[in-house]
Amino acid sequence: MKHKKYIVILLSLVLVFSLALLSSCQKNIKQEEMKEENTEQATASPGKPEIKEGTPATEKPVVAEESDTYKPEEAEEPAKAEATGPTFVNLTDGKTFSFADYKDTVLIVDFWAPWCPPCRMEVPGFVELQKTYKDKKFAVIGVAISTTEDAVKEFIKEQKVNYPMIMGTDELRKEYETKMGKPITGIPTTFIMDRKGEVAGLHIGAVDKSVFEKEILKLF
To answer: How far apart (Å, rounded) are the C-alpha atoms in residues 27 and 127?
Structure first.
């Protein structure tokens, strides 16, 4: 009888201890869950992200896929872009334009604007030169500055321009200012480029078509 009594007491103690241990684990789990919830709330609501000018706000950070994987083709992309040079929109036909496509070509590069009377005076002559010598690896390139695309497109339509016209960028302008050794302060400013891409002639102000024609014929 005493042994049975001891066994009952022992089982009771084990049961009480088990219940106490189980209660403690559940309490700890709830505490951890509460900690995790608090951490998630603090992380999920850090306040509004700083939005810089020109940077769109996003709900999620952009993560590059397979950022740890080396891809040879990705490494070669900068070299490819550098080789082709910057691209522009040819407002005459809407296609992509690049000076890299005009290597070994005699060029007239004309910095102009539709609102400039002397600039407008030169365009009919450029149209004729483009039509006459386009098969001799020659081209006129109009670089519009201090104007809008709409104004250039309207002018192209009115004058039936047959050569590429692009919107000038600061980088392109600086490139040609370097070639001429001083800033472009007036338009039209027109460069005659030989087949090596070097400046063969430079004109600031309106020039008659015959002058341009005489200069480009020397370069063919």
So the answer is: 87
